[in-house]
Write a structure and sequence with these properties.
By secondary structure, the chain is an alpha/beta fold. The protein is about 30% helix and about 15% strand. It has eleven helices and eleven strands. A five-stranded parallel sheet has the order 7-6-5-8-9. Strands 2-1-3-4 form a four-stranded parallel sheet, sandwiched between helices. Helix 2 crosses helix 11. The radius of gyration is 20 Å and the shape is globular. The structure holds phosphoric acid mono(formamide)ester. The site of phosphoric acid mono(formamide)ester has 10 residues, from helix 2.
Length: about 350
């Protein structure tokens, strides 16, 4: 694999992505064939934010590959509570292990961590920014359940403003030909402009609607998401948005027989429990494909990292991004790194405009 760290799934070439998706399919059919693939490898899971699926599927994946795991799921039980920086924690744990996975509530944290780790870093979700291994999970699920990842009408519903899963998924699905998107949200929780610009730049169409009912009859895939309470500035703002979109049996009756309903989970109230028994509901199978997807990713990343050059840290002045949710606001030693895009320079950590 040409990359050392996985921060954004779009770092992978189409061939590399296909290779991992194919491998995940093979592992799902013959899991025991891979039970020694990571023998003698140790993975650290650094979870600064709550998680059920991502954390435990990474841990299950590594254990099923014959590897071992260490880590934390409560930073307050570590020296983070004493004020230890992300840089110092990552530097130390990178010395103990062969690969790190990190989930953090702040945008750009995984990218920042990758600057200081001597071993590969996998982004397990950075604030409202990206969640590449969820997207890998989603692609593996679509390949195995729908049978294709192209020429799909994909509806995304809920908290599109704060949902890192839909941001990552939009970008990756835009790479396949013939896909189009229907964004179903309130004005307040609409898809960020930089994601819509990306979709357009890839030649994909998108539309925005306010109700599930007007979109669902036309969809091949419906990707439901939770309203992300933890990303709101106040309880009042969250209360104003919650409960607006609820997928129930009545709305499912408007969908096509081939509809595939996905959800990264956890759900709160956006999918009624009655939908779980509908054969078009695939969100629990999706969690299982997530483990196989992560097994494939771990194999690829641990077997090739020795040949990949470490990320170069530029000795540049300290940097504070305009985005109040960017990691540079919280870890004040980070170098000033930018990425050139067709619309100008953006912060390399959170992709917020420089201007
Ligand atoms: N899909 C997902 O990221 O779930 P968790 O927050 O439980 O890891």
């Amino acid at each position: 694999m040409s990359i050392r760290n996985l921060i954004d799934l779009n770092q992978l070439s189409s061939e590399e992505l296909d290779d991992i998706v194919d491998m995940a399919g093979r592992i799902s059919r013959h899991p025991t064939h891979y039970c020694s693939a990571c023998r003698d490898k140790l993975m650290a899971t650094l979870f600064y934010e709550p998680s059920t699926r991502t954390q435990m599927s990474f841990q299950s994946a590594m254990l099923r590959l014959g590897g071992k795991i260490i880590g934390f799921d409560n930073p307050n039980s570590t020296s983070v509570a004493k004020g230890e920086s992300l840089k110092d924690t990552v530097t130390v744990l990178g010395g103990y292990t062969d690969i790190l996975t990190i989930r953090h509530p702040i945008e750009g944290a995984a990218m920042a961590a990758s600057l200081y780790s001597d071993v590969p870093v996998i982004n397990a979700g950075d604030g409202g920014h990206l969640h590449p291994t969820q997207t890998l999970t989603d692609i593996v699920t679509l390949r195995n359940v729908v049978g294709r990842t192209d020429n799909l009408v994909i509806g995304m519903c809920g908290d599109l403003a704060n949902g890192r899963t839909v941001h990552s998924l939009c970008r990756s699905m835009s790479r396949y030909s013939g896909n189009s998107f229907v964004f179903i949200s309130t004005q307040k929780l609409s898809m960020p402009q930089y994601i819509k610009d990306y979709v357009k730049s890839m030649g994909c169409e998108y539309s925005e609607v306010r109700t599930l009912e007007e979109a669902i009859p036309y969809l091949d895939v419906l990707y439901m998401t939770r309203i992300q309470r933890e990303r709101f500035d106040s309880v009042e703002e969250y209360e104003a948005q919650k409960g607006i979109y609820v997928l129930d049996g009545k709305k499912m009756s408007l969908g096509r027989p081939e509809l595939c309903v996905l959800h990264p989970l956890p759900r709160v109230d956006e999918i009624s429990y009655e939908v779980d028994d509908d054969p078009r509901a695939y969100y629990f199978q999706q969690t299982l494909y997530g483990m196989y997807a992560r097994m494939a990713l771990i194999i690829r990343m641990t077997s090739q990292h020795e040949t990949c050059a470490p990320v170069k840290r530029e000795e540049t002045p300290k940097f504070t991004c305009h985005n109040p949710k960017c990691i540079t606001r919280f870890e004040r030693y980070l170098p000033h790194l930018t990425v050139d895009t067709p619309k100008g320079k953006v912060c390399a950590y959170c992709e917020h405009d420089e201007n």
